[in-house]
Design a protein that fits this description.
Elements: E1 2-4, E2 7-10, E3 17-18, H1 20-34, H2 50-57, H3 64-78, E4 83-84, H4 88-94, E5 100-102, H5 108-117, H6 140-149, E6 156-160, H7 163-172, E7 176-180, E8 191-193, E9 200-201, E10 205-207
Parallel strand pairs: 2-5, 2-6, 6-7, 7-8
Antiparallel strand pairs: 1-10, 3-4, 9-10
Helix pairs in contact: 1-3, 2-3
Length: 215
């Protein structure tokens, strides 16, 4: 499959990197301390900013600052266990600067730490939770990512695994939403692929191997 585009916008966790084990350790501790009734690992929570989930789950608004600082601390401590997902290093290493970026729901320190741990270069146009007023499923992260690259959203392809992220890309008006992993089958992605293996992009033509397609 070939598609024409100007830029690529990647979610990070679940698309470029596997941070699930790292997040599991951090959120299990946090929930035991602040929200024992919560199943943090429910897929409906995926792809959203930690600060938004903290606000939703704490028992009192007065706890927000300390609770938010705590999850930031715990996730940073486990960030070094993040690994690259198949095809991610090869693809991002092949891309020209200014043609791609990452739009992550992680805070700046965590987003950078996970990319570095996985061996993926940090793009200058990186968008993190701190850069937007509203996180996914709102369109703000992908609108800003396209803006930082200097492209219209409709000229960009978004790679997402989470439903919240795909909804954000859809509302942003992305030209194509590529779901990554089987988790994306439940969302509104235009196409779903297993992983990033075999993908190429020359700044104009995006190639997705048919053998990697799930939908």
């Amino acid at each position: 499959m070939k598609f024409y585009a100007s830029g690529l916008l990647f979610d990070n966790d679940g698309v470029l990197v596997d941070s699930h084990a790292a997040a599991a350790d951090a959120w299990a501790i946090w929930c035991s301390e602040y929200a024992p009734q919560v199943n943090w690992d429910d897929p409906k929570h995926a792809g959203q900013r930690a600060e938004d989930k903290v606000r939703e789950w704490i028992s009192s608004p007065d706890l927000f600052e300390v609770a938010n600082n705590r999850i930031n601390e715990l996730e940073q401590l486990t960030a070094h266990t993040t690994i690259a997902l198949p095809g991610a290093v090869d693809l991002t290493s092949s891309l020209r600067d200014g043609t791609w970026t990452v739009c992550t729901s992680a805070n700046p320190n965590l987003g950078r730490a996970r990319l570095i741990a996985a061996g993926i270069k940090v793009p200058a146009e990186l968008v993190t939770a701190a850069d937007v007023k509203r996180g996914k499923p709102h369109p703000d992260p992908y609108l800003l990512g396209a803006e930082r690259l200097g492209f219209a959203p409709e000229d960009c392809v978004v790679f997402e695994d989470a439903i919240a992220g795909a909804l954000a890309a859809e509302e942003a008006g992305a030209g194509l939403i590529v779901g990554v992993t089987a988790a994306a089958l439940a969302g509104p992605a235009d196409i779903v692929i297993r992983d990033l293996t075999g993908i190429t992009f020359d700044g104009e033509v995006l190639y997705l191997p048919d053998s990697n397609r799930l939908r």
